[in-house]
């Protein structure tokens, strides 16, 4: 089975609707990856829009600066629940979960030009911890509020910018939370909608 087919199969196994940019976005779309629980249940996934993001400074500086992409992360909303084997409790998924996945996703495509390979792992660990703390404090000063359409309905999102790009997260009416991250595309003009045809992303 090809990697592309495995990606499609992963998205098809989800029991919740996927979200992407709405029809106002006319550029290329692609499936990225899904995240699963230990029992194989699909819990979240990401869909790419625009350029395929490269690790920033590896793309040759100027080229990376011109990248225009937005990645939309869909997270199944769920309450605190027992783990599949009955031995523990799984945390609830919330808008903070979407913010965390989006924040760490942006970092995965970032490599500050002043770092060498040996330091990037340390930098990434430190920044990822910071992203987690920020996602856990959506009411904090790092975030502002932004209203964007979800299935045509104005919806409040938590939004923050950094030197690496922007991150946002908010709810939907479809039993999922949406996060997004990007560079080179303004978050202010985006809209989200449920994906009716995965074929547009293959």
TrEMBL record:
Highest taxon in the source lineage: Bacteria
Protein's UniProt name: Uncharacterized protein
Organism: Streptomyces lunaelactis
Higher taxonomy: Bacteria, Bacillati, Actinomycetota, Actinomycetes, Kitasatosporales
């Amino acid at each position: 089975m090809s990697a592309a087919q495995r990606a499609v199969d992963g998205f098809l196994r989800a029991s919740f609707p996927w979200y992407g940019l709405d029809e106002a976005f006319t550029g290329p779309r692609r499936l990225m990856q899904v995240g699963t629980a230990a029992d194989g249940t699909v819990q979240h996934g990401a869909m790419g829009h625009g350029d395929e993001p490269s690790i920033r400074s590896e793309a040759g500086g100027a080229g990376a600066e011109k990248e225009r992409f937005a990645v939309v992360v869909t997270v199944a909303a769920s309450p605190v629940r027992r783990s599949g084997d009955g031995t523990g409790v799984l945390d609830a998924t919330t808008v903070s979960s979407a913010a965390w996945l989006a924040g760490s996703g942006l970092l995965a495509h970032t490599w500050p030009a002043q770092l060498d390979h040996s330091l990037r792992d340390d930098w990434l660990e430190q920044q990822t911890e910071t992203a987690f703390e920020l996602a856990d404090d959506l009411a904090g000063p790092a975030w502002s509020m932004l209203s964007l359409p979800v299935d045509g309905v104005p919806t409040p999102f938590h939004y923050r910018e950094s030197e690496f790009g922007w991150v946002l997260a908010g709810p939907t009416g479809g039993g999922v939370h949406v996060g997004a991250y990007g560079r080179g595309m303004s978050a202010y003009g985006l809209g989200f909608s449920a994906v009716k045809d995965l074929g547009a992303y293959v």
